[in-house]
What we know:
Helix content: 55-70%
Oligomer: single chain
Largest sheet: 2 strands, antiparallel
Strand order of the largest sheet: 1-2
Distance between the termini: 107 Å
Amino acid sequence: MKNTENKDTKTKGFITLSQETFDALKKGLTCPVTQYIFAVPVNLPCCGKMIEKIALFQSVSAKPECPCCKQELLLKTIPSLSVNVVIQQQISDWMKAGKISLDELYFDFNSFIDNTYTRDTSVVKTLLPMIKNENFQNTLTEMLSDERDPQKIDEAKVYFLSMLLKEENELTKEISKQFNAVIEGNEVIRNIQEKIDKEYPIAQLMVLPGGKGIDLLKRFPFILNNAKPEESGRIILDLLCEEKQLKAAPNLLPLFLEKLKANEAALKTALNYVEKEGPFKGTSIVLGLLITSEGKKYLEKNPKLLMQLLRLLNKDTLNAVSVQGMSILKAFLSMPEDILYSKENIELLPFVLSQITDDTLNSDLPMVQAIIYFLSISLKEKTELTKGISQQFDAMIKENKAINSIYEKIDKEHPFSQLMSLPEGKGFSLLRKFPFILNIAKPEELGKIILNLLCEEKQWKANHDLLPLLLETLMTDEAALKTALNYVEKEGPFKGTSIVMGLLVTAQAYVRQNPKLLTQLLRYLDKDTLNAISEKFYGYSILNYWLFMPDEIVVSKENIELLPSLLAEITDETLNSVTSEGHSIIVGLIGRELGQAYLAQEKQEVFASLLKRLTAKTLNTVCTGSNKGRSVMSQLLMGDYGRAFFEASPLLFASLLELLTRETCTALTPENRSIVFELIWSDLGKAWIAENPASFMRMLTWAIEAKTPLNAVWQDVYSIVFGMVGSEAGKKILNTYPDLLIALLKSLTSETLNAIGTQSPDEGFSIMLLLLNMDAGSDLLKDHLGFLAELLRKLTGKTLSVRTERFGGLSVLSELLRYPGGQACLEANPGLLEELLKKVDSKFLEMELTPPQQQKNHSCGFG
């Protein structure tokens, strides 16, 4: 009820207060967070401010800090905070006097339930009268009469509260009477309560957030008395599937199971409850026990429990498959050997196996089939591990038609290589313990086993010592060896991969120790295997990877002699296949020692035929990684063999150059050289430039647009522009295209302009020195004196003053003063000379600035 008294009022026990004064006092009783009058006021331990305890609980649950001063505040400290009884009493007195109505106090249904869960009796008792208030009833009615999707969490809370009140325990006996009155007085709440009592499953308690459902079960185990067997099954299943919940309340699992075991019919019903949908679809209690860490621990402590539970399962439950592809049978057979082969489990195995349906046997559960297969062959061998159970198992096989039919089906159809599908490396572990298993494997299966070992990095790390055993088994039979070596995966992540491919990539240490083995194995490969492209190993073919292996492994007389026969089997598709790093067979041949040794003794016609088979795409593939920037053409131009080959085949050279793209021509190798660079700096390239100036201009234009290739410097000074102004071929192009020099120079950075030769015979050389000393350079720059001044200003003092013996001790500065073009530039740009002289070392200024006695213009002599 709202207070409607006048501004000035008198109430028994209170002094007369103006409404303004009362409102100020009332404001002091209002929580700064909720903006309601305090119901349960407490003082904060950090800053001393007063706050609503229920709101504080909510705030700190969301973020562990004080909502007022933001200092750290832990949730566990809140229940111990004492209620400010002075403030609470003042509020109580004012409520009795009608100054404050019940509706003005802070109340939240969820908070009320939360505090009931935590047994914070001080809060609960304070809030008890508020069950009667209109706000509470309206909130509850609105929350539960929502016609949209059912609010399961809210329903579960009401359900819990109703059960809690019915128990009439010490905590709730005072609440019960008042809450029942609310139910009777509110038709909506009463109807919902009746519906919940009739229909609502107790298992919905598990949906409460923050593990509150589990917390309820720990605090109020009487709730289990109302649970149906199916509901108990679901609760146990939720516990097992949410291991965080189970770790927080480990005593609940035995509590549930003990309650269920008291009634075998209820236990059987609960055990055969299987989730029909959601993330736990196909999961049952026994499967949860077998696959979860807490479940496994419980079974280890109760070794006979599993046998007892399994016997109560029906066929549907045993064959149910979870979302992760796991079934009870699969999980049971995956147990550690010391548990799986226990007397109890062996005795139980006939029953378990007899329940296998055809769907399960034929489903994609190779591990189940593989383990059954292993059991059959290992027990028949009478090994040390199995001799104690062999007799019992043999008897089971004879007595159980289901097991017999399974064995017959497996022996007839099931591939031995499925052993490799066992999780956690169990297949390889079996091979290590029982090498006799290899005796019954087919060559193709052995090939697949070795391939799996080489392709699975984790398996290889743990089981690489098995490789010699597997290979030795194969090599006792040449036909079997050839069959296994030519097994190539047709699909999946290892598509295109064979044993030899795996050996090249994964087992290089083993190959290094057995250098002749690889040569021997390569001789057995057929055309299809040699041309297979491995998706697992970055798109390499066997020959492509072999050529790029370390020289000390592959370079030998035997391998050089073997290479022609391998190349003869390579198809155009494989020859043009390129890996993710840009490697191809042709790049390996011309760039690696093995390929170079082969080419040195092979006829040039053979190599020419390989080059003619290349596609434009392969020619224009640029490598990444350690060979970054290399392409077929750059490799050939940089090597003695390639240059000699093209000198003998100029037409082929010209035709291949015409196929090159912008990216290929301007790509920089690790040596900081591009194809454009190679052309201007090699006799082979200069000859081609003389015959094909327009084609070279196209490439040069690409380099100008890219800028980076123009500014790439090799061995301190050599660059594309340096080669252009220092060679006859370059000068000819510059004279033919007058604007070209300016375009080239505008693309240069200060670093390139200031690059200076440091080694004889080019010590002291720079681009600017060549330009000023070159007649063509002086002529081309005479109409661009302003631009020439810009270039000169970019030069350092060292570049301006360094002398070169090849030009009679001349420097850039002395050349500038000596030649008419330089003098004209200085005249056109007043102050330039003074600006340049300030940069040079004082020792240089002390020397004579006049040129040496040899006044004749010196040609640089390049090209």
